[in-house]
Amino acid sequence: MARTKTEYRCAECGWTSPKWVGQCRECRAWGTLEEAGSPGLAVPAAAAPRRAAVPMTQVDASGARRRPTGVGELDRVLGGGIVPGAVVLLAGEPGVGKSTLLLDVAARAAFAQRMAGGLGPVLYVTGEESASQVKSRAERIGAVDESLLLADENDLGAVLGHVEANAPSLLVVDSVQTLQSSQVEGGAGGVTQVRAVAAGLIRTAKERAMPVLLVGHVTKDGGIAGPRVLEHLVDVVCQFEGDRHSPLRLLRAVKNRYGPTDEVGCFELSDTGITGLPDPSGLFLSQTSLDVPGTCATVSLEGRRPMPTEVQALLAEPSGPPRRTTSGVDRNRVLMLLAVLDTRLRVRSSDKDVYVSTVGGARTAEPAVDLAMALAIVSSLTGKAPRRGTVAFGEVGLTGEVRACTGVQRRLQEAARLGFSRAVVPAQGSAELHAVAGLDILPASDLATAVAAALP
């Protein structure tokens, strides 16, 4: 017989204590500790396995072939499509477009599977809205299909009952924090409930080879709400990012058991829905044809995808204490670049207001953007615009050297495709680069060389 010990578990965060206390020591909630019996350290008896182990060479992998979702940018992030039986968790801030994206995916998948035949319908379960509210949004974005089933449920048992009755080929749950299981104590969204709901959905997905898309809430710190074990249980974790004042949305794969985690999908959110952007280059470059001081174009790598970005800098006379304001770039790297420019090139900015921003709401923290930011700052201070058609990328060290960055060849090819004619690149590794038609490659070993090559 297994020895049973008594412990008390917090219904909010899962913290355990050997004795009851009034306040949880982890989340500081009052009256949330409940008694929970847990088995002692006992070795279970051996049981007969459900199926015998077979050599890996004899395992049939045909059941793990990907199926396109109908949304190209989502397929790019997932690695080419969704794997049958995979559980995908999509998290993001309120209003970023999670529900809109998955409703569009559900409608496209329902239409594709109805045309192909042989596959079941798509089941969309909402726990946050009523069925009529979801129908209204679906009509607005054009996501209505007769093979798309809609159910508003908050009970896990009822959701599994819908799955048994309809045998869907794809299940979308919006959201996992709104469901609760009657077999587990605690309110919806609690640690115990989220863990139980996720375990039940994952077990059903694996047994039926049915892909499941889950919507996840985030905390005020940007982390996924609920227990950390939720991210370990699911197969794919995607983060949906975007500024509410910009239509651009980026989808990143934080975890992917079936593909790479360095792919980024681009979407544009509008009143009529959300659309993928296979080529978002025009969103991050200014449309002016004038040579304006304080600007410099660069190509950053978001995963394996080259993204052209324009960096703008403005140095102005202060009306009070000098300010350092950034938007879309890492503020700490801007402060470091100002110190390097002051020390190595005698570019004085301590008595100026410094503003550094990107165009189109792009966000980048890649070190390879350092050179473009430095050239934009020098250009603004000297009043000289960079030579027309110039693009620059490279990491700047504290000694003023321009250090090598990854994916230089891909950056050059993207710059040439966009019509740039000059590229200032790190001298380290430049001898191994292949020539790109229409692009003059200018290696630079330090900041002084880069400034001379970029500015007239």
UniProtKB/TrEMBL annotation:
This is DNA repair protein RadA. It comes from Schaalia naturae. ATP binds at G92, E93, P94, G95, V96, G97, K98, S99. A motif (RadA KNRFG motif) lies at residues 255-259. The keyword Glycoprotein does not apply. Keywords: ATP-binding, DNA damage, DNA repair, DNA-binding, Hydrolase, Metal-binding, Nucleotide-binding, Stress response, Zinc, Zinc-finger. The keyword rRNA processing does not apply. Belongs to the RecA family. RadA subfamily. The middle region has homology to RecA with ATPase motifs including the RadA KNRFG motif, while the C-terminus is homologous to Lon protease. Residues 63-218 form the RecA family profile domain. Residues 353-456 are annotated as: Lon-protease-like. DNA-dependent ATPase involved in processing of recombination intermediates, plays a role in repairing DNA breaks. Stimulates the branch migration of RecA-mediated strand transfer reactions, allowing the 3' invading strand to extend heteroduplex DNA faster. Binds ssDNA in the presence of ADP but not other nucleotides, has ATPase activity that is stimulated by ssDNA and various branched DNA structures, but inhibited by SSB. Does not have RecA's homology-searching function. InterPro entries: AAA+_ATPase, DNA_repair_RadA, P-loop_NTPase, RecA_ATP-bd, Ribosomal_Su5_D2-typ_SF, Ribsml_uS5_D2-typ_fold_subgr, Rubredoxin_2.
